[in-house]
Amino acid sequence: EVQVLESGGGLVQPGGSLRLSCAASGFSLNTYAVSWVRQAPGKGLEWVSTISDGGDSTYYADSVRGRFTISRDNSKNLLYLEMNSLRAGDTAVYYCTNVPHIGVIRGPKHYWGQGTLVTVSS
Amino acid sequence: EIVMTQSPATLSVSPGERATLSCRASQSVSSNLAWYQQKPGQAPRILIYRASNRATGIPARFSGSGSGTEFTLTISSLQSEDFAVYYCQQYENWPETFGQGTKVEIK
User: Most buried residue, A44, A57, B11, B107, by most Cβ within 10 Å?
Assistant: First the structure.
């Protein structure tokens, strides 16, 4: 059975930092490009960042560029999102999801975890 | 940035009826469009990719059509488990963008 599990969310003060992690079982996460997509409470979906399968190419939404860093450790089949200078507007459930085609960076999002909630508040 | 606009915002449909959801792109996305279903408290689930291809395990009552800037998701006969929010997403260009969603509710 395929499972994606995000972790690392929590309550953080404005200006603070947090690191999210994403692990997968039932398939090899390191074979695919992987993205973070977030959803603010009661709102729609927003693409945040994508990393290529090899980790050599990264892409960011303008709203997070310069503050967030996506990375991966393919030896451990793990994905990360380092979030700095957090703002109230970053409050959301953060989902980890993969593009289901090898060698493709932009694409439909296939497997999704249940997400991890990040709350930025004083 | 390509803006995705979905209509209507809310669609009231009786079980067994047909539902037609629209998604418009501010510029051509070719066929690089996906549809997702999201139920309360759950993660999104992919339904359609490349505008008209059903994802694995998706029932045949879900179908997608369109290309360029105009796309449609059709649910041929709504079942109780289909009442949810549906999102379209373009992956033609960075940044990938989603529509604001269409809520399909019971009439």
Answer: B11
pLDDT for A1: 85
Contact B89 A114 (CB under 8 A): no
The model's confidence at residue A28, banded by pLDDT at 50, 70 and 90, is confident
- End-to-end CA distance of chain A, in Å? 40
Asked if the C-beta of A109 comes within 8 angstroms of chain B's C-beta atoms, the answer is yes
Residue A79 has pLDDT above 90, yes or no: yes
A106 vs B42, B91, B100: nearest CB: B91
| Interface check A95 vs B, CB under 8 A | yes
What's chain A's average pLDDT?
95
Residues of B in contact with A22 (CB under 8 A): none
How would you class A23 by CB atoms within 10 Å of its CB: exposed for 0-12, middle for 13-18, buried for 19 or more?
middle
CB B33 within 8 A of CB B90: yes
| DSSP-assigned beta bridge partners for residue B10 | B103
Write the pLDDT tens digit of every residue in B23-69.
Answer: 999 999 999 999 999 999 999 999 999 999 999 999 999 999 999 99
Instruction: Reduce the DSSP state of residue A102 to 3 states and report it.
Output: coil
Choose among A44, A106, A113: nearest Cβ to B100.
A44
Q: How far is B100 from chain A (nearest CA, A)?
A: 6
CA atoms within a 13 Å half-sphere pointing along the CA-CB vector of A64: 26
- For tokens 């379209």, name the residue: B88
Selected residue with higher pLDDT from B105 and A102:
B105
- Name chain B contacts of A61, Cβ cutoff 8 Å: 95
